[in-house]
UniProtKB/TrEMBL annotation:
InterPro entries: HotDog_dom_sf, MaoC-like_dom, UPF0336/Enoyl-CoA_hydratase. The lineage of its organism: Eukaryota, Viridiplantae, Streptophyta, Embryophyta, Tracheophyta. This is MaoC-like domain-containing protein. GO terms for molecular function: (3R)-hydroxyacyl-[acyl-carrier-protein] dehydratase activity. It holds the Pfam family MaoC_dehydratas. It comes from the Eukaryota. Residues 31-121 form the MaoC-like domain. One of its GO terms (cellular component) is mitochondrion. One of its GO terms (biological process) is fatty acid biosynthetic process.
Length: 158
């Protein structure tokens, strides 16, 4: 899905059958509400059983209002968003700054916005500004990603 929330002067797309091509300034989004089960499954995969994710008392003692979702789990929305729109994309790098906690049960929206597109042989190197928001405006993660895209045609996933 292409969204123009929070980013002014974005291109709009018509509902014609012509393929939509990724341009600088477009915004790709996805959202997720992280559950107890998500946190537990992630902990089992990573062996990260930090009590901040499971014990509300310890989380509060550490300055949080409740249990927090793993930051890397929240950041996983970025490659998910890119792969959803570009089958065969290869994630090359990601920088992250964790700005605010995400609590279990909160909905997060990830935004991936291309800031640089460069053709390299038969592929495209795309540099993206990446942000996650909660409550529509609170930035929880800020960063940049680079991905190798097979083409610039956006898949709607419909």
């Amino acid at each position: 899905m292409i969204a123009n929330r929070l980013i002014p002067n974005l291109r709009s797309f018509s509902s014609s059958s012509a393929p939509r091509i990724l341009h600088i300034g477009d915004v790709l989004t996805s959202s997720k509400q992280f559950s107890d089960q998500d946190v537990l499954q992630f902990s089992n995969l990573t062996l990260d059983f930090n009590p901040l994710h499971f014990d509300p008392h310890i989380a509060r003692q550490s300055g949080f209002r409740d249990r927090i979702v793993h930051g890397i789990l929240v950041a996983s929305l970025f490659p998910r968003t890119i792969a959803f729109h570009f089958a065969g994309a290869v994630y090359v790098s990601q920088s992250l700054q964790f700005k605010s906690p995400v609590y279990v049960g909160e909905r997060v929206v990830a935004e991936v916005r291309p800031v640089q597109l460069r053709q390299n042989k038969d592929k495209y190197i795309a540099k993206f500004a990446t942000k996650c928001f909660k409550d529509r405006e609170v930035v929880v993660i800020d960063g940049e990603a680079v991905a190798l895209l097979p083409n610039l045609e956006i898949i709607d996933g419909k």
